[in-house]
Design brief:
The protein is of the alpha+beta class and 621 residues long. Helix content is 15%, strand content 34%. The longest helix is centred in the last third of the chain and has 19 residues.
């Protein structure tokens, strides 16, 4: 069937995309079962915990979600007997839920908790108190008997202050505790230290590191951790006498890939040591691979479906639990037996139909600042084709962060476009993770320059290769990606339309509303205030909104505390004043990122209708 690009009939409705897009949030071995966290878009994005038996462990209306450091993570864990410990998304208290029982509060009202970790029957967490002045954070041990709910003094504090903390790890002999710490003046992927203290609180030993991640004890005298002094996050081993290092750390790996990622959330695990000395680790160079590292240092790549944002969630004997995205399946949870080689799908992980969702193609284009990495998703529909000679419209996707990356994962949200004859180009502009520190630091002081140059270079490269209609390339992004969208539209000349989801329009306004975790983020991306105020003004899309001359769709969560509605409304008002074609949609109850199934459906349908209207095709809803 020959039909113009953009108008192809598709089985991927907005409702089916919303229903098929649960977010996996960690997995655990629980006795003979496997449990995992999963968002429920139809219930406003509530995060539940499910079992491999088919049971739902955490019933509605409870939701396991943390707000520590704003982005949360590590909101649940469980013991071998089937007792669930979780942070409630509503009040941010930690609860215990035994089989057949009701949730019992373990912490008092007030502070938020996240990064839960159960070790040797003891429950550790990162606590954040935004009700104090100054705001304070801590590594704490929470009594599992509930005594801390009414007596805050029963919650033991190991370290506290205005710094940021992550990844508490108790030594096997229970005499020392390790964690990762950073001041907040620099982001954790720029500078973070490994700290080790005696549990009696009498001694403290920070370890010299560059950007430490995820300490894991492998014996009473040895601890593993990730760090990137070489420009790539590698695994290191430090041997100790009590708290005194026995010489320098030993690097266990030396690949041109990262075992680590930007520490945005508290629950990620990039590697796990096994009891027999082997290590399972993720390695990222654009996409992920998972490797087994043996005791003699040799390595074996594991044949697993997941290859994007993989987390090594848990180990038991020779079995390993992996969760993440895949270029060939839906997001999922997989159980891998290292000895037998067996790979069992626990949740999600349904094979993508290659006729409708062929794997994305990694591409590299030359940019003003060096190579630019991206993943291209060409239009694909086995039941439709375009007239001879017609080139497809494309949407350039710009990820948020900006210190983050995309992996070319199979996605019904992308197939929503490609199955209709609209190509997608997902760009990892300079500043993205996944390609080493040098690539990540291209954006230092250059936000609004390098990212914009790179998305323009990627779009033009696609058009020059004859793969996209140069007159019908749109750009879409959320949060920091929305900033790049608006900045690229200000630059002009490449994109025919823009879609900004909760995008940044005014840097000075952003600093006024910034939360603790990102308070100094913009300093590294642009420059310090007040010295760089003129640069903040010059870089802000709102300053040059009169240069935007193409249609813009703005979408915003009414309850967004990271990029509040005032940002989108400022650019809306400027576009209206200048008579520029635009649409503005405010979603009540939504924060930074859309979670409700109803919102996801409406946003996708609005995007498609907007693109059809401004790029000149009749979309099939």
């Amino acid at each position: 069937m020959s039909m113009p690009f953009g108008s192809w009939p598709s089985p991927f409705s907005a409702a089916s995309v919303a229903a098929s897009a649960p977010r996996i949030d960690g997995a655990r071995f629980v006795g003979s079962e496997i449990w995992w966290g999963e968002s429920v878009p139809a219930e406003g994005g509530r995060v539940t915990v499910r079992s491999s038996t088919g049971a739902e462990i955490l019933p509605a209306p409870w939701s396991a979600r943390s707000r520590v450091h704003e982005y949360g993570g590590g909101a649940w864990t469980a013991d071998a007997d089937g007792t669930l410990f979780f942070v409630d998304g509503g009040d941010q208290r930690v609860y215990r839920l035994e089989r057949g029982g009701a949730p019992v509060a373990l912490t008092p009202p007030g502070p938020s908790h996240g990064g839960l970790r159960l070790q040797q029957g003891r429950l550790f967490a990162v606590r954040e108190d935004l009700g104090s002045e100054p705001h304070r954070r801590a590594i704490v041990e929470i009594p599992v008997d509930g005594s801390g709910a009414d007596d805050p003094a029963a919650v033991r504090v190991f370290v506290q202050g205005t710094a940021f903390f992550a990844h508490p790890a108790l030594s096997p002999d229970a005499t020392r505790i390790a964690w990762v710490e950073w001041s907040g003046v620099r982001m954790p992927w720029e500078s973070a230290i490994l700290s080790i203290a005696s549990v009696n609180g009498q001694t403290f030993a920070p370890v010299t590191t560059t950007a430490a991640l995820q300490p894991e004890w492998v014996s009473d005298t040895a601890i593993l951790y990730g760090d990137d002094p070489s420009g790539r996050w590698q695994l290191h081993c430090l041997t100790l006498d009590a708290l005194t290092p026995r010489g320098a750390p030993v690097s266990l790996t030396s690949s041109d890939a990262d075992t680590g990622y930007g520490l945005w959330v508290l629950g990620n695990r990039w590697y796990q040591p096994l009891a027999d000395g082997r290590i399972v680790a993720v390695r990222t160079n654009g996409r992920d691979e998972v490797v087994e590292i043996t005791t003699d240092g040799s390595e074996r790549r594991l044949d697993v479906p997941c290859d994007g944002h993989v987390s090594v969630d848990d180990v038991s004997g020779s079995r390993v639990l992996l969760s993440g995205n895949s270029s060939t399946t839906t997001p999922g949870v997989w159980c891998v037996d290292l000895d037998s080689g067996g790979v069992a799908t626990v949740a999600g992980g349904e094979p993508a139909d290659a006729d409708w969702m062929p794997p994305a193609t990694p591409i590299v284009v030359d940019g003003a600042h060096g190579a630019v990495h991206a993943f291209a998703y060409a239009p694909a529909n086995p039941e439709a084709s375009a007239p001879t000679g017609e080139l497809p419209p494309y949407v350039v996707f710009v990820h948020g962060g900006p210190t983050a990356h995309v992996t070319g994962a199979a996605s019904s949200a992308i197939a929503f476009y490609t199955s209709r004859g609209i190509g997608v180009l997902d760009v990892n502009y300079g500043g993205s993770t996944g390609y080493g520190r040098d690539y990540r630091e291209r954006l230092a002081g250059q936000w609004g320059v390098v990212d914009v140059d790179d998305v323009i270079a990627a779009a033009r490269g696609l058009a020059e290769a004859g793969l996209a209609d140069p007159a019908r390339i749109a750009i879409r992004g959320g949060s920091a990606g929305g900033w790049t969208v608006l900045s690229a539209l200000v630059r002009g000349g490449t994109f025919a339309a823009g879609i900004s989801r909760y995008g940044v329009a005014d840097l000075r306004m952003l600093t006024q509303h910034s939360h603790d975790f990102e308070e100094h983020y913009i300093t590294g991306l642009v420059g310090p205030l007040p010295a760089s105020e003129e640069l903040y003004i010059e870089r802000s899309p709102l300053t040059h909104a009169d240069r935007i001359d193409v249609p813009v769709l703005l979408m915003q969560g009414a309850d967004d505390r990271v990029v509040p509605p005032s940002q989108s409304e400022a650019i809306r008002d400027a576009l209206a004043k200048n008579g520029v074609d635009h649409e503005y949609v405010l979603y009540p109850g939504e924060g930074h990122g859309f979670r409700s199934g109803t919102t996801i459906v409406n946003a996708l349908e609005r995007e498609l209708a907007f693109l059809g209207r401004v790029l000149g095709f009749e979309p099939s809803l």
